[in-house]
Specification:
This protein has 319 residues and is an alpha/beta fold. It is 26% helix and 24% strand. It has 2 domains: 2-166 and 211-314, Metallo-beta-lactamase, Chain A (4-Layer Sandwich), CATH 3.60.15.10; 171-206, no CATH class. Strand 2 (22-27) and strand 3 form a beta hairpin. It binds zinc ion (2 copies). One zinc ion binds at residues 11-12, 21, 70, 72-73, 222, 280.
């Protein structure tokens, strides 16, 4: 089960209620940050104080994924690194920064600035990983992968967080085969072949379902209208994408490599996602965000437009 905590949902200019882009993806006590707009460190502190997360940058939140090098997506890493340096945490905080080459260059500039000449010890360990398309992280229960996106910066990436497929235990089949409740069933669930007291041999395949796909969350970052996003988001449980301009300003969206809510909704419908989430809200829509939401819902009703610090739970589909 993924838990998404929206930290920053504004486009380039923060509003009284929204800071620039930052999204926290959480899974089984692990935390991943996608983009780090100005004010992200403070928003995280606010979220912890409200009991919404226990994510501590550099401590249990060590992986930061950047979609592209525009400053509304990365200025916050400067403040975050400065705060970590000032906090003098022990053990020393560690961060892994993932992004395209130009993004990493900009993050390095900020990190260098914060490591001032009189403070030779930056007090934060940073590793940089240049992202290319494909799987970035693979562990026992989730994979994190990157895909190329089309926006005015180059290169730009979106990220896919996906649970691994899982087979579920089917008790009705175990009943039919005479497997008693208890340890024998647990061994079958763990993938072991067992022998029943009557000598029958039972294989896990006889009592487990076919592999069921895991929950899938797609975060596009800033992106121009493109059908390739529908291919990437095919069957996703949650698509987080942008709504920087309304359809009335579709010409501005097109000129700046962004999408309108109607275009995002068309992609969501084409991809067959369960839930569409609009973020990167243009500051011109402050106080009238409902207009953007209504535009998307007219095409794809299952759309939300979260505020900063809203959470969305994404569970594996049950069949
Ligand atoms: Zn942006
Ligand atoms: Zn951008």
């Amino acid at each position: 089960m993924f838990e998404i905590l929206f930290l920053g949902t504004s486009a380039a200019i923060p509003t009284p209620e929204r800071i620039s882009s930052a999204t926290l993806v959480q899974y089984a006590g692990r935390h991943y940050l996608v983009d780090c707009g100005e004010g992200t460190y403070q928003r995280l502190a606010q979220a912890r104080a409200a009991g919404l997360t226990d994510a501590q940058p550099g401590v249990n939140l060590r992986q930061v994924f950047f979609t592209h090098d525009h400053l509304d997506h990365l200025l916050g890493i400067g403040g975050l690194l400065f705060s970590l340096r000032m906090a003098r945490l022990q053990p020393r905080p560690r961060l892994s920064i993932y992004g395209g080459s130009t993004t990493l260059d900009r993050v390095r500039i900020l990190a260098t600035m914060i490591r001032s000449p009189e403070a030779r010890d930056p007090r934060v360990d940073i590793e940089y990983f240049a992202v290319s398309r494909g799987v970035l992280i693979e562990d026992e229960d989730i994979t994190i992968s990157a895909f190329r996106t089309n926006h005015t910066a180059r290169p730009c990436f979106g990220y896919i967080f996906e649970e691994r497929p899982r087979r579920s235990f089917r008790p009705e089949l175990a009943d039919r085969l005479g497997v008693p409740a208890g340890p024998l069933r647990e061994r079958l669930m763990a993938g072991e072949t067992i022998t029943l007291p009557n000598g029958d041999i039972i294989h896990p395949d006889q009592v487990l379902s076919d592999p069921q796909p895991g929950a899938k969350v797609v975060i596009s970052g800033d992106i121009a209208f493109t059908h390739s996003l529908a291919r990437v988001a095919q069957g996703a449980d949650l698509l987080i994408t942008e709504a920087t301009f309304s359809s009335e300003e579709a010409h501005l969206a097109e000129a700046s490599g962004h999408m309108t809510p109607a275009q995002a909704a068309a992609i969501a419908a084409e991809a067959g996602v369960r839930l569409l989430c609009l973020t990167h809200i243009g500051d011109a829509y402050y106080g009238r965000e409902e207009q953007l939401l209504a535009e998307a819902r007219a095409i794809f009703p299952n759309t939300i437009l979260p505020a900063d610090l809203d959470r969305v739970i994404v569970e594996r589909r049950t069949t």
